[in-house]
Design a protein that fits this description.
Layout (H helix, E strand, L loop, with lengths): L2 H6 L3 E3 L7 H6 L4 E4 L15 H12 L3 E5 L4 H9 L4 E3 L8 H9 L7 E5 L2 H10 L3 E5 L8 H20 L7
The chain binds magnesium ion.
The site of magnesium ion has 7 residues, from loops.
Protein name: HAD family hydrolase
Keywords: Hydrolase, Magnesium, Metal-binding
GO molecular function: metal ion binding; phosphatidylglycerophosphatase activity
Length: 174
């Protein structure tokens, strides 16, 4: 596996967060989740968590898995969303840079090996997680539309995804 694969290939690629079950994470000895917000938990234009999202957070909590939302979006967006879930969050995280990942890991008082990074973007979430030695799960974006910068990132991401599919590293169609 080349350096390119090392940094951009997620450990798992799934349809949505609902595919990710506490039992599966526990098998991997994962105790903490760093999750992206926009287009990972809800569409980028949805202000509050849906009932389904709430249930997913509840399930994780019941299984002793701590969750922190780490988002590149602004304080208002991230705080409003996170407050009703009653969990920690980091806004303007500057992913793929490492500082927010390290901060979240230390806040949750776990080792790097016990953390999973979940997100819908290869260039911020997966790259950031991989580069910092964390387990990564990529999800298909909740919504197909994006802001301007993300749109550009998606063009690159699409090429990477096609490459990984050709190589057989990712073997299902969205
Ligand atoms: Mg996102």
């Amino acid at each position: 596996m080349g350096i390119f694969t090392k940094y951009f290939l997620p450990n798992e690629y799934v349809q949505s967060i609902y595919t990710i079950k506490p039992e599966h994470l526990k098998e991997k000895n994962i105790k903490a989740i760093i999750t992206d917000l926009d287009n990972t938990l809800v569409g980028w234009d949805v202000k509050d968590p849906t009932d389904e999202v709430r249930k997913w957070f509840e399930e994780m909590k019941e299984n002793g898995i701590t969750v922190t939302i780490v988002s590149n979006n602004n304080e208002d967006r991230v705080q409003t969303f996170s407050s009703t879930l009653n969990i920690d969050y980091i806004f303007k995280a500057k992913k793929p840079r490492g500082s927010a990942f390290r901060k979240a890991t230390s806040l949750m008082q776990v080792n790097k090996s016990e953390v999973v990074v979940i997100g819908d973007q290869m260039l911020t979430d997966v790259f950031g997680g991989n580069r910092n030695g964390l387990y990564t799960i990529m999800v298909v974006p909740v919504k197909k539309t994006d802001g301007f910068i993300t749109k550009f990132n998606r063009l690159i991401e699409r090429r990477f995804l096609n490459y990984f599919k050709r190589k057989g590293y990712i073997n299902w169609e969205e």
